Amino acid sequence: GQEKQLAPTLLSFFIYNPKLGPKEGEEEKKILFYHPNEVEKNEKIRNVGLCEAIVQFTRTFSPTKPAKSLHTQKNRQFFHEPEENFWMVMVVRNPIIEKHKDGKPVYEYQEEELLDKVYSSVLQQCYSMYKLFNGTFLRAMEDGGVKVLKERLEKFFHRYLQTLHLQSCDLLDVFCGISFFPLDKMTYLKIQSFINRMEESLNIVKYTAFLYNDQLIWSGLEQDDMRILYKYLTTSLFPRHMEPELAGRDSPIRAEMPGNLQHYGRFLTGPLNLNDPETKCRFPKIFVNTDDTYEELHLIVYKAMSAAVCFMIDASIPPTLEFCRKLDSIVGPQLTVLASDICEQYNINKRISGAEKEPQFKFIYFNHMNLAEKSTIHMRKTPSVSLASVHPDLMKILGDINSDFSRVDEDEEIIVKAMSDYWVVGKKSDQRELYVILNQKNVNLIEVNEEVKKLCATQFNNIFFLD
Amino acid sequence: MGREPPGPAEDEAPGAAAGAGAAGREGGGEEGEGRARGGAEAGGCYLALCARPVHFEKANPVNCVFFDEANKQVFAVRSGGATGVVVKGLEDRNPISFRMEDKGEVKCIKFSLGNKILAVQRTLKSVDFLNFIPDSPQLEYTQECKTKNANILGFCWTSSTEIVFITDQGIEFYQVLPEKRSLKLLKNQSINVNWYMYCPESSVILLSTTVLGNVLQPFYFKSGTMSKLSKFEIELPAAPKSSKLSLSERDIAMATIYGQLYVLYLRHHSRTSNSTGAEVVLYHLPREGSCKKTHILKLNRTGKFALNVVDNLVIVHHQDTETSVIFDIKLKGEFDGSTTIHQFVLPPRSIQPYQIPVAGPASVTSQAPVPCKLYSSSWIVFQPDIIISASEGYLWSLQVKLEPVVNLLVDKGKLMDFLLQRKECKMVILSVCSQMLSEPERGSLSVIATVFDKLNHEYKKYLEAEQSYTMVVETGLSRSNPLLKRPVRTQAVIDQSDMYTHVLSVFTEKKEAPHKFTIAVLMEYIRSLNQFQIAVQHYLYELVIKTLVQHNLFYMLHQFLQYHVLSDSKPLACLLLSLESIYPPAHQLSLDMLKRLSTANDEIVEVLLSKHQVLAALRFIRGIGGHDSISARKFLDAAKQAEDEMLFYTIFRFFEQRNQRLRGNPSFTPGEHCEEHVTFFKQVFGEQALMKPTTF
């Protein structure tokens, strides 16, 4: 009969703190956020209570590493305690195969399809993203108690959960890496020089990050903060601004600014029209270094052609229209020139290195040390989703190999013969992981090994990556 | 004196002098006086008279004073020489004294180069000679000029034995034969001469010809030959009304500027032209080809002027305002298609006040030193850098002081352009660099970048010259090119070690600047070096790393390394290894670097073994095909230390197999010193676990 695949979906997502309602009858107080909100109160309390019990119970077996997930036939629950006593729970329904038997639909839950590491990582990113824009849970409590925290959670997750797209999560969500823009030393130094001069001229700037083609070139932020900011920029902010860019210079924004024809710079956050004295200079606030200095910053994202700069300034200094105009007049022309320099240099380098006729290997590379990530498997990220160009089954094999790797410290290599002439190779060398998917007819293990060696020699010859 | 020296000249337009005051005075040296800048430089005076002048007996009715530009010597001739001649020079500090017979009034007196022969002109028709060479005839001898009815205007020595007579009807070039006490005519040329001028530096004599005197004919002398260069005409400011001599020798000077000979013409302000003041017009006089007007130096004032050339700068003294201005023809000017118009580089300043030392042992009363009257009307100026006060009996060389310039030229880029062309610039440039990096006069990063770029431009030019010289020498082409000379390293070549020692290391150690600025400066310097394709020295990278580590900016360091901004080297890789304990990713960065170097395979093995990554080390060495020559003992030692029996077994087996493959027997040779490991292996895994020799 006809078969229909139903993708995994988010069933519920909630955040609670057992210390907030320890007494019987006050259980509802523990719940800080619950999605979907329509769920009846008692069911909410029941679900939270169940999670609490599971975590408590499993703690007796492993006091330092409490349970991370619970597998059931229909769904899987993921637990995460990002701050002491604050628990986040995400319940994902397993994918279903819908069959028709005697004209009646029959549902078959696929219990083993979801990868724990992938969805645990998604849950952790939910917290990181919340923290980036709102600060820690604890800080919200200190600012205004449970009420304020609840408001913030509601405001943030109400929208954020809609963007999760659980059906297309994969290994890249585990890495949550950063794609770096390849660049020659001289152009890189020019960018350094540009950033330093901008920070000097706009002296309230505390940190700067520089991206080109949605890839990172420089981060003044620490690695972990940059990691989540990078995710926000590349999966949310930049895609939202794709359209005016594609429309070119004659986009409405540009048309309103006849005085600025000498450069292509524009604000992606903040004021839309610098010539309008009524325009609002409001920038998103972000929170960084929450473990020690706990800094609150305004995030100014400014872009010219493919080059984007993030200027982060202390939240205590609200950027004025005058400041924005100054920034536009200083940064705009220089960034425009720099962007075309980078583009030119990039094309030259590509020609020299012969990268254009790069062999068509499908691979994912990740380095835990600098979070560098490279994938030839994924399509360009769109606002909604990043699409893998290979069969989900192969992606699942990658995830499985990754899980194996994370269990041991030693260097490892795993070669898997998958269905229909596919081979999947995973290699781990020190802090680096490489996953290759090969599709060749009638090849044996030795030949596969040779192919991967070839790939390493061309792609990774300047790093210490053991064959 | 043989001829009037070109002293301060009168302005042509009689009424113009009154207006001159307005052009000068402002500043005038007072401006800087209030600054607390140490007594050495009063008010930003960038010109000074040399500290050790030549003192001579001042001119008086019985004592005649002469100056020879070629040897820079002053002659004091008492009573025609009968009561003594004293010769003193700037360079030769020991005066030469002698007597000679008084045969009449001396018109001109000069030594040949090296003080070999003395020439004395006493009449209009002849010159007398006296040998100063030891063991040569001591009697005077005389040479009359060849041309009948000609009067000798003067003479110039062009070498130790060659002399040129300039007469009103031409020039005569002689070889002096001191042994024979006679002269031999080498060449002569008939030409009507109004006046002449000699530039000893370039051995060029310039003759003023024609009625107006503005057609100049240069001659060049070299080892017995005289060559006529192409003549040229000086454009006079206004068409002369009558046919009389219109170009005075007082308005002409000759000097070598940046290795090229120039004729400098002081063109006075004329009311007919719309110029705002007098100007100095430079004519470039090449050895071959024609003379061309190339530069105009705007004086913006009128009055009496005198010229000097010091350190390739044209210095114009203005008597009315008692100030001087300087011009640098290498600095950017306004180019009008054929000539470049220059304004003076620095605001007008007076020469630094000068105290005349109270000389003589008689002055035990310790009188206060007398301030010297500067810009006195009794001053006579000679090229290139001589100022003589005939009334006080002093000869000075003029000097340019660079320290005061630093505060007068606000534009740091222009300041560097100026300083880089000066002879004694290194320490001043380095102090400018230090100054712009620290408060209170900290420069902006873009200014700092400009300065670094200018320094490195000069540095690169030298490196390139040096490199192409080395290449020519190595390829043996130097013999076919005798003109090839090793490039001279001037003070303007400020290399990385200079910058490191005098500027950057001091600056980073002071720690007064925010670390962001410190790192930005270091990166800017590295950027500039890279821009000029100069290989960056390891100690600069070390400085960057040290600064980043001090401020816990490891992620920044990581990014720099990721983009290879800090170039790979073994010392850098080792430095990174040493950081591993405070920043673990440094280990990976270090290994990557060693790998890229491709000459550090031994180091990679050592690093891996030290971390007990014995298998990884073995896989690496096998990957590069070096596993047949490695020491088995080293790997077995490391495997044993790892306290992992399976690892030890694997490594041991690997080497047994190697032995089998290389020698046909799995056992170790005594030379490999693996006995203890064999024993250990037997102990743990039993004798039967040893590999059996395979026999074919």
TrEMBL record, chain A:
Domain of life of the source: Eukaryota
GO cellular component annotations of the record: Mon1-Ccz1 complex
Domain spans labelled CCZ1/INTU/HPS4 third Longin: 357-455
Pfam families in the record: Intu_longin_1, Intu_longin_2, Intu_longin_3
Ranges where the CCZ1/INTU second Longin domain occurs: 205-331
Listed transmembrane segments: none
Biological processes per GO annotation: vesicle-mediated transport
Residue ranges occupied by any CCZ1/INTU/HSP4 first Longin domain in the UniProt entry: 11-135
Alphabetized InterPro entries for the sequence: Ccz1 (IPR013176), CCZ1/INTU/HSP4_longin_1 (IPR043987), CCZ1/INTU/HSP4_longin_3 (IPR043989), CCZ1/INTU_longin_2 (IPR043988)
Family: Belongs to the CCZ1 family.
Protein name: CCZ1 protein
Organism name: Ploceus nigricollis
Gene: Ccz1
TrEMBL record, chain B:
Domain Mic1: 422-670
Pfam families recorded: RMC1_C, RMC1_N
Regulator of MON1-CCZ1 complex N-terminal domain ranges (all copies): 65-183
GO cellular component: late endosome membrane; lysosomal membrane; Mon1-Ccz1 complex
GO biological processes: regulation of autophagy
InterPro entries: RMC1 (IPR040371), RMC1_C (IPR009755), RMC1_N (IPR049040), WD40_repeat_dom_sf (IPR036322)
Region (Disordered): 1-36
Signal peptide span: none
Protein name: RMC1 protein
